[in-house]
Amino acid sequence: MIEARELTKRYGDKTVVDTLSFTVKPGEVTGFLGPNGAGKSTTMRMIVGLDTPTKGSVTVGGRSYAKHAAPLHEIGTLLEAKSVHPGRSAFNHLMALAYTHGIPRRRVEEVIELAGLTSVAGKRVGAFSLGMGQRLGIASALLGDPAIVMLDEPVNGLDPEGVLWVRNLLRGLADEGRAVMLSSHLMSETALIADHLVIIGRGRLLADTTACDFTREAGGGGVKVATTEAMRLRPLLAGPDVTISSSSAEELLVTGRDAHEIGAIAAQHGVPLYELTPKAVSLEAAFMDLTRDAVEYQSAPAGTERKAA
Amino acid sequence: MPTTALHRSRRPGPGKGRNLSAAPEPKVPATPRTAYKVTGIRVLRSEWAKFWSLRSTWITLGVAVVLLILFGAIASYTYSPDAVATSGPPGPGSSDVDSDAVSLALTGVSFAQLAIGVLGVLLSAGEYSTGMIRSTLAAVPRRLPVLWSKAAVIGPIALVLTTVGALAAFQLGVPGLDGEKIALSLGDDGVLRALAGAGVYLGLVAVFGVALGVLIRSSAGAIAALVGVLLILPGLASLLPDSWYDTLSPYFPSNAGSAVYALHQSSDALTPGAGLAVFAGWVALTLAGAAFRLVRTDA
């Protein structure tokens, strides 16, 4: 369990994390989302005590991270894939971390195998591809058999097979009762793994919700109706909470009624329809809507697509 | 779903997992939560493993010892009292008193100290430049044990190896000085003390490098500081007024350090014991600054 309370980090007069409170619960995968520069990495660094909060506090398993006798057993982290000396082999890197806790060599071999690094364990990490570096980072996160697993952008640089592996791995870890937290700037990817979503922008909490709720709310994009008798259908559909707009003589955009209802009403009154299309808003678009004002590095209008990338 | 092959040694209950049908793992609540625990000895063991698992360690240590032996032996073989006498203006009291068998054997110290100091810097600042420090401090969030362990690993290793190197340089030089009036043997008064003093000095230089690395957090910056303090500072200081210079210069790190391994104490230098205390003081001061920065600033 991770509990952040009014966590704040300032560098000079720039506030990177702003009174952020959230909880990461055991048995769940919590997605930690935000555009680049939103303060995700800084928050994660504060969780494991690499940075000291300017104000507020964060506890890991009820205590501040540094107070644990065996920190790697409380929370395993992947902060940046390259938190490794490139001159050391993967095995020696993991072994060096294992020594600090008295973790046996057997466990090191276990996580190497689990991460699929057996064939390259003796190679210098400097020669690793980005994906192999991520796998090594995940292996070191799991080394201490931790109650909480926290990964910063774990799928960066992984091939599709690797992405699937991470997804299944995290699901499995949560099912074992561990708390899993992963950060990402990709909504659609995260929605596939996460139970819970914590979305931040410019260091502030924008949303703290379940993935289901977020997906459901994102679905409310209205229904496009095309009919030759738009003028007659319009008043029939009207009602409280229903808004109807029209872009041409034969088209209506209805929100507040789903396609099922609209079809039924039209049939009841004998209005012929030739198109009835629910317009789903993609999760990515919903995420961008939410974070639009909070994007740190705004690109030119033509590059709107890249904002969340 | 593939199994994650993790076996939890002590977490109570599977939590609110989805696999509610799974039989509860047999757990003995009375056992301690885990055998994993960070201790000082374990951090030391980790730093020892880190030290030897880098190729650059072996290269730098090798270079230091080879420089020490090579320059010492060459200086002894090429020594000629006539050359010394003719190089300066001939006159009474021309100072070839400065050359003795030990100082010749230790010619390489000024080169070896750079290699050893750089090794110390790489051990600490190298973690900052590669990002390794994040992994290190995540494992040991109390941080200070990491600094003490790095110093405790590299100091003794450098001390032992360079003492052996100094002894070897001296012994290899003995035949080269055969018949010269400055020739000495290991058994002579103060010889062993001076040679071991070189090892102690270089061991402290290694710790100095570690401290500079943690203080400055950049390999290039820390190496520059090391060279500045050990080689350039004495030269710069000669710009000071003479009376100041004469009073202060024995206390410069490099001058205090060279007093530790001098066979004969020159008139303007500290005794070996005092030199050791002063140089160790400089190292301790730097180490304290490094400890302060390590604990107080974000990694």
TrEMBL record, chain A:
Residues 2-227 form the ABC transporter domain. Keywords: ATP-binding, Nucleotide-binding, Transport. This is ABC transporter ATP-binding protein. Belongs to the ABC transporter superfamily. InterPro entries: AAA+_ATPase (IPR003593), ABC_transporter-like_ATP-bd (IPR003439), P-loop_NTPase (IPR027417). The keyword Transport applies. GO terms for molecular function: ATP binding; ATP hydrolysis activity. The keyword Cell division does not apply. PANTHER family: ABC TRANSPORTER, ATP-BINDING PROTEIN (PTHR43335).
From TrEMBL, chain B:
Keywords: Membrane, Transmembrane, Transmembrane helix. It comes from the Bacteria. Residues 1-31 are annotated as: Disordered. The keyword Metal-binding does not apply. The chain crosses the membrane at residues 58-79, 101-126, 147-170, 190-215, 222-240, 274-295. PANTHER family: INTEGRAL MEMBRANE PROTEIN-RELATED (PTHR37305), MEMBRANE PROTEIN (PTHR37305:SF1). This is Putative integral membrane protein. It comes from Streptomyces bingchenggensis (strain BCW-1).
